[in-house]
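User: Please fill in residues for this 249-position structure.
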């Protein structure tokens, strides 16, 4: 969700360019326009996204502040790589935080909108086309947004970032594979939300996380890229050996 670049008077705010750059860089990261593990410079950002140097610097600095990138001396910024360990950490955190959506209280307007979305999704059916999948995702994102908007804002901010990470992982693994991830939990979720069924909401969210975990694993097993140091499994093995070989003082 992008922030408004307008002030209360409707005019562009003084930091509008910086805020636009920050949001644009985040979107580019989530959608893998900037590839995981890629090293980019201010000049790269200026050329690729048409930003001024100050805006490019602001966007990269924000990515670094939020943990999406890390500065590399005399090289630029390295975008956070996607590793098995990262995927595991994101899913584990979601299993802890996401059940909190079962306790939200929606407004009557939000419930009415959810009913309308349910009708639209029913009309769309189970089409396999990219267009249908894209349309379904837009409406599903709106469902998630309505639930998130009714949540404790501090918890919501944390969960939104976890969803951003999950979306980036999904976009990266979908790539050119021809296999898109489908949200099969949507109707169960809508039924539970509209029926005021907290246990049903929690069950639907955990089912979604399990389905994403299976999709991620399936896609990773098709990937012929070699495991590198720090890619999760090798990192844990290295840490284990380091602990085993450590001298006892």
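Assistant: Residues filled in for all 249 positions:
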């Amino acid at each position: 969700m992008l922030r408004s670049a307008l002030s209360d008077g409707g005019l562009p705010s003084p930091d509008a360019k910086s805020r636009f750059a920050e949001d644009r860089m985040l979107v580019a990261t989530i959608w893998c326009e900037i590839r995981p593990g890629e090293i980019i410079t201010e000049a790269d950002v200026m050329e690729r996204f048409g930003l001024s140097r100050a805006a490019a610097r602001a966007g990269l600095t924000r990515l670094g502040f939020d943990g999406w990138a890390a500065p590399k001396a005399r090289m630029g910024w390295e975008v956070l790589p996607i590793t098995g360990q990262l995927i595991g950490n994101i899913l584990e955190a979601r299993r802890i935080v996401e059940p909190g959506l079962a306790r939200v209280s929606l407004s009557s307007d939000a419930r009415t909108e959810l009913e309308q979305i349910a009708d639209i999704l029913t009309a769309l059916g189970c089409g396999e086309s990219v267009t249908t999948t894209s349309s379904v995702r837009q409406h599903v994102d709106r469902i998630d947004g309505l639930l998130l908007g009714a949540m404790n804002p501090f918890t919501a901010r944390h969960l939104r970032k976890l969803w951003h990470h999950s979306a980036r992982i999904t976009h990266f693994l979908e790539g050119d594979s021809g296999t898109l991830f489908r949200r099969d939990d949507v109707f169960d979720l809508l039924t539970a939300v509209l029926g005021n069924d907290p246990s049903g909401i929690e069950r639907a969210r955990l089912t979604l996380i399990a389905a994403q975990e299976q999709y991620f694993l399936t896609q990773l097993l098709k990937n012929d890229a070699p495991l590198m140091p720090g890619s999760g499994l090798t990192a844990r093995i290295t840490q284990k050996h380091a602990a085993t070989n450590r001298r006892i003082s």
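For context: The longest strand covers residues 69-72.
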